[in-house]
Design brief:
- The protein has one domain.
- It is 21% helix and 31% strand.
- It is flat, with a radius of gyration of 26 Å.
- The N and C termini lie far apart (69 Å).
Length: 273
């Protein structure tokens, strides 16, 4: 018997395209707001920011009938080189923009902006490898002793108690939740998705980010006080577009110029896991 099937009626059966999209997964961008910023200095001009140091003076005993002892410390500069220029570019032809259900320019402009922000976060995370103070062992779960030793390192360096942060990769968060010191009450429901924050650990704000450097089974987590590392945005991420008559479409570029630098080595700890 000859039946009308989905095969014979294929010309009458429409395909359905959802207006919703499956967007590429984006990692938490947490480091840029947590570090020492020199954006105002960077926006003026030049390719290097010189940040002078200031040495502590000492208290001397005053000896009767002898003059005081003037101190003349020799200071140095820490230089932040504005040497990184990142760009993300895409081109949308008119026909694609016209026929697509979603706004192609808008969708990919957002993704381009994210790519630039991720590049900044990744550059800051890479500075962890330069910290001379290290605790923990690669390919080994974090322990309470590692956490306490790391915190003590900042205490011994007289790092201010405020603006200290731990930044861990997600697998370390799983190990943290097994520590008695890090109970479920410290976990702030909902925040990890939007900000990367996963509560406090011994009074130190704790964040999670997949941008923390990892190679193989070696992870460079971070504990630092704000003044340990710096970010200078000379050109904040900007979006520029131009219409191309030859190719009939819009070329869009998002770019930024910035520099990162380790400023106070004793205010940072490389926490290995």
């Amino acid at each position: 018997m000859a039946n009308i099937t989905t095969t014979t009626a294929a010309a009458f059966i429409p395909e359905i395209w959802s207006k919703e999209i499956i967007s590429a997964v984006e990692s938490n961008l947490v480091l840029a707001p947590l570090v020492w910023r020199f954006d105002a200095e960077a926006k003026k001009f030049g390719d290097t920011i010189h940040v002078p140091s200031l040495t502590n003076l000492v208290a001397n005993d005053k000896v009767a009938n002898l003059p005081t002892s003037p101190q003349s410390p020799t200071e140095a500069n820490t230089d932040i080189s504005l040497d990184t220029h990142k760009e993300t570019t895409f081109f949308v032809e008119d026909i694609a923009e016209t026929q697509a259900m979603q706004n192609q320019m808008g969708l990919y402009t957002g993704k381009a902006g994210y790519a630039i922000a991720e590049a900044i976060d990744t550059a800051l995370a890479a500075l962890a490898a330069g910290f001379s103070q290290t605790y923990g062992t690669y390919n080994t779960a974090i322990t309470t002793d590692v956490v306490l030793d790391s915190v003590q390192a900042l205490d011994d360096a007289d790092a201010p108690a405020n603006d200290r942060v731990f930044v861990f990769r997600p697998d370390v968060k799983r190990d943290l939740l097994d520590l008695a010191a890090y109970t479920s009450s410290d976990y702030i429901e909902g925040k990890p998705v939007s900000t990367g924050s996963i509560g406090d650990l011994y009074g130190v704000s704790t964040f999670m980010s997949t941008n923390i450097y990892k190679t193989g089974t070696s992870t460079n987590n971070m504990l630092f006080q704000k003044d340990a590392i710096a970010l200078a945005l000379q050109t904040a991420p900007r979006t520029q577009s131009a219409y191309d008559l030859e190719y009939l479409g819009n070329r869009v570029t998002v770019d930024t110029v910035f520099g990162v630098k380790e400023m106070r080595d004793t205010f940072g700890v490389l926490v290995k896991t």
